[in-house]
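name: query_chain
kind: protein
chains: 1
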Amino acid sequence: MSSSSERSHRSRLKALLGIPLLIAALAGPAAAEKAGHLPSRGGSEPAHATVAGSPLTILAGADHSFQILNDQVPGTGQLYPSQGTGLADMGWIVRAGGVLYGPDFQNHEAGTATGGLGTVTPYGAGSVSAVSGSGSEADPYVVVVAAPLAGSGLQSRQEVRYVNGRNYFSKRFTLTNAGAEPQNVSIYLGGDIYLAASDSGIPYLEPASQSPGGRDCGGPRGNNDGYYILYIPQTPADRYTGTGYSSVWSQIGSGDLDGVLAPPDCIDNGAALQWNRTLAAGSSVTILATTSFGEIPSIAQFDITSVTPAAGAQGAIVPVTIRGIGFANGMTVSFGNGIAVDALTVVDAGTATATLTIAADAPTGFRDVVGIAAGGNLTATLAQGFQVTGAGEPDPFTLTRIVPASGVVGTTLQATLQGTGFQPGMTVTLGAGVTVSNLVVTGPTTATLTLAIAATAVPGPRDVVASLGGKVSAALPAGFLVIAGSTGEPPVAQAVPALSPASLLLLMLGVFGAAWAIGRR
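structure:
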């Protein structure tokens, strides 16, 4: 039998041991981690650039990962781990040759819960540019990320764009096969979403664009009220998923998303998109996607993303293909003064065709392409989506755009040049420090080329100049931007969320109560 002093000692010990448990319980989510969370390995977190916009602040990592803050939900990251001020569990992932390439999640400062991915080969040493642009519609914030996929012959490049005032930001992810053989690849964009200020949400799919994501559990069900995070495939995706976060990572790790939305229960959820492509040797593929935070943006329901061809001469009749989201019979499209749109036909939800009749006196220059959805409740604008050029036979030799329109010093990228009157034998220059090679004219309006930007190239805008036979030339003034490399910002120590006044009061009462219990024994 135990003595009274031994019982008293054990009682005091139990009370003392209970204090940390009490503190942990009262601290709640600030001290707890979800199942499957792995702490940081302690290596250097990849560099990142910070787009300090409004309402969104975007952290774009050199490993193609992200963290997003929304000033409408202050102090909380919108991706797990939300309590850190570094990169989180969202990013671009590529499967090629049986290898899964992705962000260096396990060296992120706040750790990761992406264990379901299985074995991941982090991208090779990547670069992230400084932020350029002013954040306006005409001059959006831009960050460029470039990273190799080690041993694969593949190169990745991403342009992140944001316009102040929007609750969404866009991403243009380009994968280039620099190898000698074709490759089959799967490209994924996914994330462990943290809706508003909660790690739980209701899986949601925006039907018009097939955009998976989630809605906060407190929002009314069955309508568009509430807080949403959506992955919007501006390039139509082959598959999607919207389900528990661990299942999202497991599906990517196994190779294919299931194309299923989980039941509308309040769960710890995530979402992802998948694109399957075959890349010929020397070719590239570009995927466009947007991620939104808050109310459902109109571009998730109706949008125009491209017009092909992107130019036509005065007096010409030009058949065009229009691509976008949410197309339906009854929609209308306008190309501005002097262009009649005839025979507009909706092929499917992402494609329409039309015939443009361009008046002989139509003003030359770029036009916004404006669409109005069936029913007239949504409008979409493709800024400077079409150009009217001067009349002439053959088509005048012009340059209208280069895609991508920027590159980081010390990188090599594949680009597409658009214009009119292209012919074999044309040459292109972008000034000192940018070497042009592999120029291939693929048609009278398009050409592909490789740009090698020297590490010593002077950052700033460049004129794109093309010549035909040394006699005819065309220019795109300031059409390309050389961006300085950046090591990004040093990681910031993880912020520990402060307790609310009520929780702090409870904590103090609990500690005093435990101390009183100890003292009275």
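note: The mean pLDDT is 84.
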